[in-house]
Amino acid sequence: xxxxxxxVEAYHTVNGxxxxxxxxxxARHGIQAAVCNGGVYVAAGGTVQGGAAPTDVHEVFFxxxxxxxxxxxxxxxxxxxxxxxxxxNPTTLQFGPDGRLYVGQQDGLIKAYTxxxxxxxxxxxxxxxxxxxxxxxxxHNDDGTPNPSVNTRLITGMLVTGTxxxxxxxxxxxxxxxxxxxxxxxxDLDTNSSMVSRLTWTGSAWQKVDLVRGLPRSEENHAANGMxxxxxxxxxxxxxxxNTNHGAPSNNFALLPEYALSAAVLSIxxxxxxxxxxxxxxxxxxTRIGSPDPGDPFGGNDGRNQARLVTGGPVxxxxxxxxxxxDLVLTEAGRMYTVDNxxxxxxxxxxxxEGPSGTCTNDVSEPGATDPDALHLVTGPGYYGGHPNPTRxxxxxxxxxQSPVDEANPVECDYxxxxxxxxxxxxxxASTNGLTEYTASNFGGAMDGDxxxxxxxxxxxxxxxDGAGSAVVxxxxxxxxxxxxxxxxxxQGDAAVFPGTVWVADYGTxxxxxxEPVDFDGGVVTCVGTDDLALDEDGDGYTNADEIDNGTDPxxxxxxxPDWDADQxxxxxxxxxxxxxxxxxSDPFAIDPQNGSANRLPFSYTWENDAPNPGGLLHxxxxxxxxxxxxxxxxxxxxxxxxxxxAAGVVxxxxxxxxxxxxxxxxxxxxxxxxxSVPSGIGVFTAHTRIVAPFAGTGAKDNQSMGLFxxxxxxxxxxxxxxxxxxxxxxxxxxxxxxxxxxxxxxxxSNVAMPASGHVxxxxxxxxxxxxxxxxxxxFSVTTGGVTGPVTTLGQPQLLPRDWFRGSTGxxxxxxxxxxxxxxxxxxxxxxxxxxGRP
Length: 839
What we know:
- The protein is 2% helix and 35% strand.
- It is mainly beta.
- β6 (90-95) and β7 (101-105) form a beta hairpin.
């Protein structure tokens, strides 16, 4: 109103006590970014005395609620690694009533750790017990015959209950073999191998009872997963994975259909079962003698011997329609939540006759699309999560003339896109798995009742719910840059050991991380969160301003921005992410300080769960993207548009965009590459990739292509070999570009039909044996129907610039795709490797 003030001060409240902000937080992003305690007030004049409200104030302006905290005190955590832990590929973890931390592993072992706290965020294992009871469970083939050569188990779920003197473990395990995938291979793994076992400590030993046997196990790696116990009814709930990608049998799931008990949240009546083993009754398999036959309940035999859903039995479908829910949580308010893993592009389509009519079939359907993961509130028995199961939906889908269900549920023919369409409360772009409720009173109760979810985007997500628990108020990353692949998470309540702490099992690093609240054991919170380039209030090495730019919390040392070279400057604000002197906009190997010179071939990236983690971008081994010398490498791909490793064991670009390296456009995206070099003595080497079912089910259009390339790493110089539409007839094409010009004399192609349920192997063989010249020989082979054709050369060897392979840095090998001039489509690679010699 034209008034002029002599002084302007800012104040904020901390648990009801007023404090002045000094100096005035006139930071880059505005004053409100400086506060995380209730609200921000700007006052004209005035003083603060004894924590009272400002006095002698002429005007007061309220600038809004806190933007970086969720309650009356800042939410902040420190971070540590549990020292002395020896878990390998941990899949699940939980503290027991005896105060020990129980950790399940992919190989079937369970480690029970006695943990001591040494100081702030500093924890150590003082004793370890290894429990082998589950790992020693015998395995079978899919015909039910024992297979003693398979001597581990896959644990994907564990629930710890009981008392301090007699802990009880419920463990979900299955056949450890992981088959199918792009090859469609059927490893003869037991598709009835999932089971729930109960381990009880007697005071001197663990007593194991296999409570339920014969639950489904997919040909890939979906199985019986996380569990929750309702003590009032003594009902155990199990997240049971599905056998398909989108409801229909597909090549990548070895053509297995959904079973009567797959793709659902199951309920197990523990009182009805008691302390004996309940073997699920199965269909009468015509290939096996007797009913039940001697192998039952093992050996699903691709559905002919699957377990039946028996009306009135102790195992029921509580909530159908979940593709692969990894974990369950029953909150203190009695509400059930789960996160369902969405489908992967190219891994299988919707059922034939999909829709609510109940007429869908178990016929093969390809290719499928990528869906996000979805958080569901399972409101009660019969809640449908949106993933079809034709076997339960339509009793006409029989096995040896038999239906394994007594009554059809037609809604399970209806595919529902994850999100509001299928009733989800929220979605996640990355694979999201472990789930827990935060019940501790830290931070003035600001997080009480929040859900925490572990995501393969290397984050623990915090989900704040409304009072009814039926809507998401806020979804943010509570912890970023956790490790590599955080898989499970558990939070400790006020009455538990180490109250308020959060523990994470990271599958990628084999580490167990602990996040300790900054107000642990009555600690005082002093962080304000001012957006300042000189402040680092949480002491994690990153300035407040850097953290605010990245959306991480400047008041929480457990939440740090990504930083490839660990120089305490985030990737976002660091122009040289590997600190090698080359800017990220022109560095072809932007996260490799040796630029490929130290990565000598051979190398092989298969991206399988049981393969070594290659590191690099998205943990795929890549160290950069084909550079156009102007764009930052991180702007040349979107992780949300990809399926990267994980359960699928492949790399998929869900929708290949029209960007292209050809000519002067230099708009290529998703041109992932790794720098490598050739050891002395190797004159010939081969780069190889495998394209999975190219264009299957998509109606290939000209200008769509996907394949392999090599070169110095930029978009003006490369040689590529790709599968392409070729007028919908399919083909293989080779072309080169040097100094931004296509070498038309080198371009060649071959008409080759693309396999709908197989793959194409592409090879670029480089000959450096001659002193002056270098050549490349493109070749390929096609596998369809399980039969692999011969390696076929595409024309004669082509001269290459030898300086691509000279100098102090390495050269690039990578994957490339484009839909230039056509519509986006999914492209999938099963591996990338380079080896000495020829294919």
